[in-house]
Model the fold of this input.
Amino acid sequence: MFVRDFMTRHPLMVEPTMPIIEAKQYMEENKIRHLPVIGEGKRLLGLVTRQTLEEVQPPAMLQLDLWEINRALSQLTVGDVMVRDVITVNPDVTIEHAARLMMEQKIGSLLVVQEGTVLGIITEVDLHALTMELLAARRRGVRAVIRMPNVKGELAKLVATIAEHHWGILACGGVPSPKEPEMWDALVKLNTTAVDEVKAALSGIEGQQLLDIRVA
Done:
């Protein structure tokens, strides 16, 4: 899975000469939170966000009256307030690399750039949508969480039990158990609603503990 597969292609973009008041309205009308600022040939110049625009303050704010503040704001352009040091990614990086970068940098989006040209944008909303697909959140089935020793062969035991009952796996993943690094919590979602049958089968796997099971 790569960024190019999940990014929004051809995102809305603006030139640096756009007044910030127009940029705010543009973002509200299109229900977006991130706006790349480009020059000729879609060359990346910077980025503005809703937060960027909300935090704009004219110089010497305390010395201005309300009319003067509004006048000062009306004269500011996107180019005056944009973030110039923008964190970007190549379209061919993995989706997990992009997610890690967004988390480490505490940012809500990454512009996707190749040779200086903006190709797209990937946001935390895109990553949430991908998580839903990875967990088959849009499909109904039996969802189970099983705690198992973090050793070779344990996941194979779980998959073998599922295969014996001819259930299909809609989603499968896992994480280290909280405060128990020697254990692993696996999540599976199966294409059946026979929760009692699944519960009986998974509860019988030696050395593993069924933590939760439900139709979802």
